[in-house]
Amino acid sequence: MASNENDSPALYIVATPIGNLGDMTARAIEVLRSVDLIAAEDTRHSARLMQHFGITTRMTPYHDFSDDARVESLLSQVLEGQSIALISDAGTPLISDPGYRLVQRAREQSIRVVPIPGVCAITTALSAAGLPSDRFTFEGFPAAKRTGRQKHFQSLVQETRTIIFYESPHRILDSIDDMLEVFGAQREAVICRELTKTFETLYGASLGQLQSWIREDANRQRGEFVIIVRGAVAQPEEALNAEVLRTLTILLESLSVKQAAALTAQITGVKKNLLYERALEISKAHS
């Protein structure tokens, strides 16, 4: 194993570039050269990376469709004293990429798991998007079908954290259309396209403007996408209007605080936690 790594066998989780090969870290190169085996999402794809950096370590496939026997086979090699590096096609493994089951089983078997950090499209996009980055939620790829996609977006309408999605060129137009319909034309968002690559593009505007921008040029619909959506404005307690309070008060006459808050949230779209706190106050005032 590389001189600056612990000599004991381990499973290394190695981040690789998402486009620009200059983003490959020296530590990642050293680890990939030193391990006994590299488990790659697509060995043919990764062969170009290995060739570029002169890495001759043997590779073997490991992807989302690998069965449990494959997982146990890889881990048995670590238990026998070998070290294995896991890489995906690009970026940090396990972030919408294969590896969760492998890492989970490794930790269950007390195998040392060592992260080798590097590029991740989520943080790369967020760092340059200009939207709040102190709190965010990563939602992966939206559903392929419109019904599932809209349901997913609908569940996030009241989310106050910045929301991050991945999307493919085949569905980028459909996703933007559905985001506009669900989040509204005025919700701010940023499209991050082909990050670190020659045609890298970051464009921020309202969803209404983004829809027009991406449709007016077919080239803007190509590549891999990160879409960042500004979170909803948090509703302060005083934002509970008279109609919401009236609904909550009526329901409290026949339901428990928890039930009344949940039903009012369902009816009005106001957050359940906010309604629960107000329901407690109303209940105490009338007790």
At a glance:
This protein is an alpha/beta fold. It folds into three domains: 11-119, 3-Layer(aba) Sandwich (Cobalt-precorrin-4 Transmethylase, domain 1); 122-229, Methyltransferase, Cobalt-precorrin-4 Transmethylase, Domain 2; 237-285. It has helices at 26-34, 43-53, 68-79, 100-108, 121-129, 146-154, 172-183, 207-215, 242-252, 257-268, 272-285, and strands at residues 11-14, 37-40, 59-61, 84-87, 113-116, 136-138, 162-167, 188-193, 201-206, 225-229.
Task: Name the features.
alpha/beta, Cobalt-precorrin-4 Transmethylase, domain 1, Methyltransferase, Cobalt-precorrin-4 Transmethylase, Domain 2, 3 domains, five-stranded parallel β-sheet, 41% helix
Could you explain how this protein is built, in words?
The chain has about 290 residues and is an alpha/beta fold. The chain folds into three domains: about 10-120, Tetrapyrrole methylase, N-terminal domain (Cobalt-precorrin-4 Transmethylase, domain 1), CATH 3.40.1010.10; about 120-230, Tetrapyrrole methylase, C-terminal domain (Methyltransferase, Cobalt-precorrin-4 Transmethylase, Domain 2, 2-Layer Sandwich), CATH 3.30.950.10; about 235-285. The chain has eleven helices and ten strands. The protein has helices at about 25-35, 45-55, 70-80, 100-110, 120-130, 145-155, 170-185, 205-215, 240-250, 255-270, 270-285; strands at about 10-15, 35-40, 60, 85, 115, 135-140, 160-165, 190-195, 200-205, 225-230. Helix 2 links the parallel strand 2 (about 35-40) and strand 3 (about 60). Helix 10 (about 255-270) packs across helix 11. The chain is globular.
